[in-house]
Amino acid sequence: MSKILLSQTDTRAPKSLDKQTTKEATGNILEELDELQNLLFAEGKHSILVVIQGMDGSGKDGVIRNVLGNMNPQGVTVKSYKAPTPEELAHDFLWRVHQHTPARGMIQVFNRSHYEDILVTRVHKWCDDDTARKRMEAINDFEKLLQQHNNTHILKFYLHVSKEEQHERLSERMKDPAKMWKYNEKDFEEAKLWDVYMEMYEDCFNNCNNPAWTIVPADQNWYKEYLIATALRDLLKGLDMQFPGMKK
Questions:
Q1: Structurally, how many domains does the chain consist of?
Q2: DSSP string, 19-65
């Protein structure tokens, strides 16, 4: 498998793609997802873990709201990962993650995830390369455990936003009253570390790629939402689920 190089990966939709037609297709897919999620919940044999990673301003919250927010909240839960608490730091790095993995019948969304422990920690040199390698091995084993022992299907998305689009979105948070609550001056400091983040993300993709990462062009929200909705729909349809019969 060829290595993922983010500098050579598009952040925008193909020019041949029509925005309005794609948005209409997404609407139809969201209707399918509503029905498929209900079937997943009723059958109770499979679980779905959706991992969403990306730089600040890549649109993680928007995807969760516009794609996954359309389904029955009984069967979809979201966990956001921020800096670990003192209690979490006193355990192994996966302790805080494992307790939020999905039960059968559920879709669990990670807004950031266990991958933060080999990304931001390496960028800021809180984690050395040797520790990172061991953590990658643990992550691979962890995901294998979920897949093999709980019938968990994992979708991993990296929202690939351009440096220019990120700067525009972060700047908008300083001007738009509806987005000011998201503003954090540290985001601009993190943006200065762009090249280091890209290096760490590429290392992550190339060493923790089973199941494979999907690199989602994220400069245009309509295309990003279409791709993620399509991937989730196709996964659910491929499970060949059936409604259970009446209980006797």
A1: 1
A2: HHHHHHHHHHHHHHHHHHHHHHHHH-S-EEEEEEEE-TTS-HHHHHH
